[in-house]
Prior knowledge:
The complex is a heterodimer.
Chain A: H1 3-9, H2 13-30, H3 37-66, E1 69-72, E2 77-80, H4 84-90, E3 95-96, E4 103-104, H5 107-110, H6 116-147, H7 153-165, H8 168-178, H9 184-196, H10 211-236, H11 240-248, H12 253-264, H13 266-281, H14 285-291, H15 302-312, H16 316-343
Antiparallel strand pairs in A: 1-2, 3-4
Chain B: H1 3-35, H2 42-50, E1 59-65, H3 70-86, E2 90-96, H4 101-111, E3 117-121, H5 122-129, H6 138-142, H7 153-158, E4 160-161, E5 164-165, E6 168-174, E7 176-180, H8 181-186, H9 195-208, E8 215-216, H10 224-230, H11 248-262, E9 266-267, H12 277-282, E10 288-291, H13 295-302, H14 304-307, E11 310-313, E12 325-334, H15 341-352, H16 354-361, H17 377-381, H18 383-390, E13 395-397, H19 404-419, H20 425-439
Helix pairs in contact in B: 1-13, 10-11, 19-20
Amino acid sequence: MAVGERDESGDSGVVSAVRDVLDGSLRARLGVTEDQNNLMGFLFVAPNVLMFSVFLLGPVLYAFYISFQEWSILRNAGTWVGLANYVDVLTPLPVQGGLTNLQLNTSVFTDPSVNLFWYSLKTTVIYAVGTVPLQIYGGLAVALMLDKRVRMKKAYRAAYFMPVMLSGAASAVMWRWFLAADGVINNFLEPIGELVGVQLAQNWAGNPSYALGGVMLMAIWGGIGSNMIFFLAGLQNVPEELYEAARIDGASAWQRFRHVTWPNLGNTNFFVIVMAIIGAFQVFGIALVYSEGGPVYATTTIVLLIYQRAFEEGKMGVGAAMAFILFLIIFAFSYHQYRHRQQEEVTY
Amino acid sequence: MTHNGTKMTRRHLVATGAVGLAGAFAGCTGGDGDSGGDGDSSGTSQATSGGSTTQVPSSELTLSGWAADDTESELLKQLIGSFEENHSNISVEYNPVQSNYKQKLKTQLGAGNAPDVFYVDANYFGSFASEDVLLDLSDLSNAEEFDVDDFFQPLLEAFKYDGTLYGIPKDFSTLGLFFNTAMFEEASVEAPETWSELRSALSAVKESTDVKAPLVEFPNARMWKAMLFQNGGSMLNDAGDEAVFASDAGVEALQYLVDLKKDGLLAVPSELGAGWHGAALGSQEVAAAVLGPWGLPFLEENHPEVNKNIDVAHLPIPEDGQKATSAYTVSYSASAATESPAASKSLIKGMTSPDGMAKWAKKGLALSARKSHRDLEYYQNHPRRKTLLEAGEWSHPVAYGPNSEEIINLLHPQLEAAMLEKKAPKQALETAQSKINSEVF
């Protein structure tokens, strides 16, 4: 979203405050004229641009260069291999055959020994589909509850936000204990299972069928808190008079949510969705600490695979190529969201 | 769990235990160091064994490695101190790395500012040596009063690349059978010497004790690598350019472990309350585990009562099989780009000299890499460690050339698949073998 748009939507108090100050005494004191506004602006952002270029943009471009090389980190040198790394990563493709008789090659998604990249992409997509909606709408639900007059509202907010402050590694270790074969969760599940006659207690982390579920549970648990904060901020921005008008018109609680709250949360919603999808595709730390990508590749996400290739096996070129493919995937999703958002922009 | 993972787990556990261990260790190793009973000729031998006082120009060296805890780095500093005393023209700065040692070292080597002397794990030694970043240490093979033949041959071989020596073993660990003698007595069984004896011992223990499972093993079947060799198999062919572990020997060994698991005689740590073998033994959830010397300080410190009942035996072997175990080893190597190659070699020699090695090994976490140290008083007084030390003779380092880590990353998930009964052992090993042969070699 362009800066200008955001100004009009009114959620950029800081920008206008800064401008007010500049318009007033500060500008006069500094002797800055209207034309020099740009220069001041650049000065303000210069430190950030500089840090960004040196520590982020530079390395990213260098990684792009490395992705066309067979790169040795030990010799700090490489040999140009063109697209070979990309071909290595992507083949065999999920589709095979010519243009006329295109066939789906599902084995790349079901058998990790056919192509681990596509398999880990599938794992990551399952993770994203399973976590993103629950993170977002769980966060929204909690925000809606805690936006009302609730006793000990702040304590609840702090409690829900707590997981966000924990490091991923710490929460992964914690959840490993909870989900261990003789962990807390099984202690609850066992008696319930006995009552209903089903084996509910499982070796959650050690079983390839359930390991990814544990990582997803952790992500949802952590994601609800951070999204709650964004939605709470969004809810503060919904003008009270809209609710008053809706009440006068006899709107029910659901109608007030559907036609007042929801459209007004559009910006927040967009931001939260984009961030959640990006975060889901980049999942790494919790999967590494919780189960190290296993058992039997069950939690090998794309970034974990990149880590293994580049930093364990020293195949920097292949790792960089994977990273750029991942970038394209994330870019495509974000761009799609952005276009979608533009189409449904509402104004009052 | 990847191989790296296993190792990390090991190191992590040591590191996490370190806080609690530190105090007791200080007592233990301090005492050992002071008594120094068996190192009677140490002073003189060190002075002469350095032997490089004449040619080595004045130099400042940096030494990098990792330390499991404070006592370990203290001990290393003491060793460096006594080296410096005997080499007045060399000063050594010790820079231990707390985490991500390998990644940091790789970056330093690439950037051309690596330490002069550093630890190299056998597992990634091959990838370093094949990139020509290590200093040729062949001189040390002939160095006076160094007695390179005293090192266990398999360990020395692990640090050769194309026949050239690029590292001297700092220490090593082998896997042995740790078992709870009280439980074995309760079941009226003795330390098993063969696979079938092991199986019947485990069955008897399961019958007569209330352990959760008689034996614990990681889902990636760490002990399988040793069993493969016991059964006449091998990881790679003689030329080291083809994986050959999916042989009958390998399949049979893996099938043996899978059958133990199916019959409830073996559990993976995630099925128990304990995260690893040492904790499982200590909490008496299991009666036996295939473990290395790093388990001993943990048991001694955290489970002193149970520890009294824990004995260590050589790994059981198949009938008509050959003695074999896995070894994990780390070298002192030097950077090919060091400005002080002679001083670096001298430092490596000092640290791994008979005397330096003896002092280091008394830490008790890893074993001396020298055969003659079997006769050290320390090992006479620590028979469990002596058992593990003896196995150095027939050990097979877990290191498979320049692509060792990739090989392990391809192998472990397949071993997991077999142990978790997602794949038949034969199919799992064949998948791993063909992947390795097509992607690595």
